[in-house]
From TrEMBL:
Keywords tagged on the record: Membrane, Phosphopantetheine, Phosphoprotein, Transmembrane, Transmembrane helix
Superkingdom per UniProt: Eukaryota
Lineage: Eukaryota, Fungi, Dikarya, Basidiomycota, Agaricomycotina
Domain annotation Thioester reductase (TE): ranges: 720-952
Protein name: Acetyl-CoA synthetase-like protein
PANTHER family: ENZYME, PUTATIVE (JCVI)-RELATED, PHENYLACETATE-COENZYME A LIGASE
PROSITE patterns on file: AMP_BINDING
Keyword Transcription (UniProt): no
Annotated transmembrane regions: 85-109
Ranges of residues in domain Carrier: 590-633
Organism: Phanerochaete sordida
InterPro entries, per the entry: ACP-like_sf, Adenylate-forming_Reductase, AMP-binding_CS, AMP-dep_synth/lig_dom, ANL_N_sf, FAR_NAD-bd, NAD(P)-bd_dom_sf, PP-bd_ACP
Residues of the AMP-dependent synthetase/ligase domain: 34-359
């Protein structure tokens, strides 16, 4: 842009503020005044592109010109009637959004900016309640708009959807050619002046207590509101950094639209990304931009300030501001005290869509009163505003704001009065009259089933002070006990792993205990009542960034219900550390320790009733839950069975620890005499499989788009999961290298640096890392089991409107887990099927299944077919195989409903033919390394139908490029199997060792012998010790199949849709030599040593 950006330190002496005597009666007139008198001055300042070290700006004249062009585009010749409501549903930059709002106003509409984060039902509700029949939308919000309109169409409401005009024509100097003349034809003005009683804008509430509410603001009240909120002695001298505010929110409109118009002062925002989604700043990027742009005032989220508080450099900058405004949520006391003591001028901003901002503004408070102020969290209300404090009987008061001559409000909810009851609860300062602090909301109060009431904000605020916590919300309405949902900050540990979860709970437990000291006993949060959020399902937040309590709790309703069920039914399945043994003498000290932790009492007497030592019915239930959890986690079958036998009233029947230890031991002794051999089997029941199949096939939607041959224009667009694994990285490599694929979205699990993890995965497997710089590749972070894949709504809808194929390759490979442990993954596939079904265009879903689902297949029936297996018994070998079987059945049901789904039953993948790369966490490299120490290699009888990783990548590419419909199931195994003798010869040549070959049973026997006295060093040199159960099962299956391990699979459907598999050559000795060379090259096979126990 040519618009110059003056230094914020230079006073612009010739700038005259607009008159506030009423001669300007609308925002449009303010805009036209600025364009006429200060046309070349900047309205919005942003980082110049491509360099981020320079600033650019869009001027008042350019924005006003854009408003004329936009008005022409959306309402040519001012046809129709003025005053119609136009919903603005966009996911775009502040500059574009402000220009659009001004253009909608100029076209005679009443703009209604609607957050794209709303649900279709919420949007439909807002459109209906405002009689809105015009929508301005963009491609990124098209699906949301379509779904909302479908709801309206059911009620015979026909909505006109206007496409966002191309910004290259509306703002040509910004999005078009730099030298393009900025000309426009003035849009016809309204024949009547603005009616003070008519609305000029509608905004909506966050919807935290239900569906969002529409809040209209009329012209007359708006001018009064702007005079009160904006015109002040200091405002013309402040350059605000407001890049953290979404423009559809009231604060965004106030700072990015109204403030520049009324103060003649520019505001700093992020660089425009149109037509791509806008940038949402992080603490570092916002700080850097504010400093570069010489912002002298900043408005920020509390979480950003907490991040800044850890840097002396940032504090030094912030203490030089005129004011640092924060709002949208509480700032932790620890951080606020630190920043205020350091001289940072903190001020809390408070307000609401319905009643404006009734507290004193920053220009009404001398700056010296803001710095080093111990009462920074307290607010003072303007004497010009009429308010009422309604006592709640517990020391708190509800704020009621009344309409008055000097301060008008547009929404009333108090019967018989022009007043708005805010539902916000406040407490007065103990010693300073006129100071108030917000402590919560009436609808936040948690009423327990006992009738006791918890105000959660103090406890939540204390927990939020932890650097490990990104968000939290307490729950427990109509329950006997409260709990808390905690969202971790970005961490390096995988919180999907149970051990990591427990470590995280342990890490935050001290701050939860500290929070408990702020609350009465009935509000105490026990460690068992902490639910850690899933990586792909963060706590729901409003546009302000605050946690929306109702939506957050609703999103985790199933987890909360399950937690209370576990509490009442004693089915806590989390790992609990049990006693040394289940004998009475070991149980007693363990129970003493456990009981002491529950009530935080170090000295529990074993022969005194627990109810005389601080226990009540709630803590008794918690202790019982711990006991049952330990029983269930025990390796002792009798203890596992006893877990279901303990009565709910156990602690009331045996209230002393000594009695309790005897009772628990007795229950276990009873069970030891009744264990059947079947109880020691895999634990995977056919009934469990059938139940889970029924659960996830019950309500699958019917496909919206017909299943047709896929011939998309511009190439295939693929969404891929599991890209960092052995198989996934090869799939991604081949997708990126083929010209028929135009774009690949990779959905990563949340991690510290997913892009770097992917590059490391490619490097480890000797794949070309430079291909990851392809413009076709787009990285996403989310979770298939989460709402909208854990993505921002606009991004999600953009993806499902362009994707032609979903390749779902991500799965937990853990053969020790139960079927229940895989349920979130099964749920995720069900959601993907629903995504495909509800899409307006056909999406093919490819799922990586496993040939393991046929482990129990009767070889007498011949080849394992390429169709669904009717008998789930074949998949009961592990929870992993059972989960794949269930998922195949879910997708089979989805295909009956019109979804184009294909299950790729993955056989054994082996090292690439091109590089030899074979991951060392798999069973064959583990077996080879261990065999060097054991002194022998086992025989693996039967055909070797392993598929090289590069071939797997090509085969998936074949499936994605196929034009014709694909079968429901294909068996991805080698079409020309080799034999074990060939593999062994290649391994021996690669190792350069003549290792003898023995039967698999003998090899497993040697492994078992070593396991009885293995040292830590043995576990490193003989990694097969960690997979002993796996190799035992392998030998068992060999015996069960009369000496042949490998099943044989039908591949006729596979070769029909994959030319690669049709012409595949058998694995040779050379391939095996390449595997060994790769393992040597990465150091996996270097330095073999004998185990300590054999020396």
């Amino acid at each position: 842009m040519d618009t110059s950006v003056p230094s914020a330190k230079v006073e612009i002496s010739h700038v005259e503020p607009p008159p506030i005597d009423g001669s300007l009666s609308s925002l449009l007139e303010f805009a036209d005044y600025q364009a006429t008198h200060h046309g070349e001055l900047p309205w919005l300042i942003y980082p110049a592109q491509p360099s981020s070290n320079n600033l650019a700006a869009v001027s008042f004249a350019e924005m006003v010109s854009a408003s004329h062009r936009i008005a022409h585009a959306i309402r040519p010749r001012r046809e129709g009637t003025d005053g119609r409501v136009m919903a603005v549903i966009l996911h775009t930059d502040a500059i574009v959004y402000v220009a659009v709002l001004l253009g909608v106003l100029r076209a005679g509409f009443v703009p209604y900016p609607i957050s794209p984060r709303n649900s279709p039902q919420g949007v439909e509700h807002m459109l209906k309640t405002t009689a809105c029949l015009d929508i301005l939308a963009h491609a990124s919000t098209a699906v949301l708009v379509r779904q909302a309109c479908e709801e309206l169409a059911l009620n015979s409401k026909h909505v006109r959807v206007h496409d966002l005009p191309p910004m290259s024509e509306m703002l040509p100097t910004l999005f078009g050619k730099a030298d393009q003349p900025s000309t426009f034809s003035p849009y016809p003005a309204s024949e009547r002046p603005a009616d003070p009683e008519s609305p000029w804008l509608i905004v909506h509430s966050s919807g935290s207590t239900g569906l969002p509410k529409s809040v209209p603001h009329n012209h007359g009240h708006a001018l009064d509101w702007l005079r009160y909120n904006i015109f002040g002695s200091c405002l013309a001298k402040a350059r605000f950094g407001a890049m953290g505010l979404p423009t559809f929110h009231g604060m965004g409109i106030l700072f990015q639209l109204c403030y520049p118009l009324c103060s003649s002062q520019a505001v700093v925002v992020n660089a425009p990304q149109y037509p791509d989604p806008p940038i949402f700043p992080n603490p570092q990027s916002m700080y850097e931009l504010c400093r570069m742009a010489e912002c002298t005032a900043v408005i920020a989220l509390p979480s950003f300030i907490e991040d800044w508080s850890h840097s002396e450099e940032k504090i030094e900058y912030l203490r030089g501001l005129q004011v640092l405004l924060f709002g949208g949520g509480p700032l932790s006391a620890e951080v606020g005290d630190k920043m205020s003591a350091a001289g940072v001028p903190l001020l809390c901003a408070y307000g609401g869509s319905e009643f404006g901002n009734p507290t004193l503004k920053w220009d009404e408070v001398p700056r010296e009163e803001l710095v080093r102020n111990p009462d920074w969290a307290w607010m003072r209300f303007s004497e010009r505003i009429k308010i009422e404090w309604v006592p709640q009987g517990d020391g708190s008061y509800e704020l009621v704001v009344e309409d008055s001559d000097g301060y008008h409000i547009d929404v009333y909810n108090v019967s018989g009065r022009k007043a708005f009851a805010t539902s916000d609860l406040w407490v007065p300062h103990e010693s300073k009259p006129g100071l108030w602090k917000i402590v919560g909301r009436k609808d936040d109060v948690i009423t327990l089933s006992t009738g006791e009431k918890i105000v959660p904000l103090p406890q939540e605020g204390c927990i939020m002070a932890s650097p490990l916590v990104a968000g939290c919300v307490m729950f427990g309405r109509e329950r006997a006990q409260a709990g808390v949902l905690i969202e971790p900050r970005r961490m390096t540990v995988d919180l999907q792993e149970e051990v990591a979860l427990e470590l995280f709970r342990d890490s935050i437990w001290p701050v939860v205990e500290q929070a408990n000291t702020l609350a009465p006993a009935f509000a105490k949060i026990y460690k068992d009542m902490i639910i850690v959020t899933k990586p792909g399902l963060p706590l729901a937040r409003s546009a302000k960034g605050t946690v929306v309590r109702k939506l957050a709790i609703s999103a985790y309703e199933d987890e909360i219900e399950r937690l209370y069920s576990q509490l009442s039914e004693k089915t806590n399945v989390r790992d609990e550390s049990g006693p040394e043994s289940w004998a009475e003498n070991d149980l007693q000290p363990w129970l003493i320790k456990l009981a002491g932790e529950v009530v935080n009492t170090p000295n529990i007497a074993p022969d005194t009733s627990l109810f005389q030592q601080g226990f009540d019915s709630l803590s008794a239930t918690v202790l019982l839950n711990h006991i049952v959890g330990a029983l269930r986690s025990s390796a002792t079958p009798a203890a596992q069975l006893a877990a279901d036998r303990l009565p709910l009233a156990l602690l009331f029947q045996y209230p002393m620890v000594s009695q309790l230890a005897m009772a628990v031991a007795s229950f276990i002794e009873i069970e030891e005499s009744s264990i059947e051999p079947s109880a020691l089997s895999t634990g995977i029941r056919v009934e469990d499989i059938d139940e889970m199949v029924a659960k996830y096939t019950l309500n699958l939607p019917t496909a919206f788009a017909p299943t047709l041959a896929v011939q998309p224009e511009g190439g295939r667009v693929v969404l891929l999961t599991g890209a960092t694994g052995n198989v996934g990285s090869h799939i991604l490599g081949y997708l990126l290298s083929d010209g028929g694929i135009s774009r690949v979205y990779v959905l990563h699990r949340p991690s510290d640096d997913p892009v770097q993890r992917l590059k490391a995965a490619f490097a480890l497997r000797r794949l070309p890392t430079d291909i990851l710089d392809s413009p076709k590749l787009i990285h996403l972070v989310g979770d298939v089991a989460a709402e909208r894949l854990g993505l921002h709504a606009a991004l999600y809808y953009e993806i499902i409107n362009t994707v032609t194929h979903i390749v779902h390759n991500a799965w937990s490979v853990n053969f020790n887990q139960s079927l229940a442990a895989f349920e979130p993954l099964i749920s995720g596939v069900s959601k993907l099927a629903s995504v495909c079904a509800t899409s307006s265009r056909p999406i093919r879903l490819l799922f990586t299944s496993s040939i393991g689902i046929a482990n129990g297949w009767d070889m007498k029936q011949g080849l394992v077919p390429e169709h669904s297996l009717s008998d789930p018994t074949s998949a009961t070998s592990t929870g992993y195989t059972a989960s794949k079987y269930v998922t195949e059945k879910v997708l089979e049901a989805a295909s009956h409903n019109g979804v184009s789904a294909t299950c790729v039953r993955m056989g054994q993948a082996c090292g690439s033919r091109l590089t030899g790369a074979w991951g060392t966490s798999e069973w064959l490299p583990i077996m080879v390394k261990s065999s060097r120490v054991l002194g022998c290699l086992p025989v693996i009888p039967g055909p070797v139908a392993w598929v090289p990783l590069d071939i797997i990548g090509q085969a998936y590419l074949d499936l994605v490029l196929a034009d014709e419909p694909l079968p429901l199931l294909v068996n991805l195994v080698h079409t020309r199997p080799s034999n074990w003798d060939t593999i062994v010869r290649g391994l021996k040549e690669g190792l350069q060792e003549d290792i003898p070959v023995v039967s698999l049973d003998e090899w497993v026997g040697k492994l078992e012998q070593l396991s009885s006295s293995a040292t830590e060093k043995d576990l490193t040199n003989v990694p097969a010790l960690k997979l002993l159960d796996f190799f035992r099962a392998l030998a068992g299956r060999t015996r069960a199949r009369s000496g042949e391990l490998a099943l044989r699979f039908e591949t006729s459907k596979l070769v029909r849709c994959s030319p690669t598999m049709l012409g595949l050559q058998s694995i040779s000795e050379e391939h095996a030599r390449m595997w060994v060379a790769y393992w040597r090259d990465i150091g996996y096979l270097e330095g073999p040593e004998s185990p300590d126990t054999l020396l």
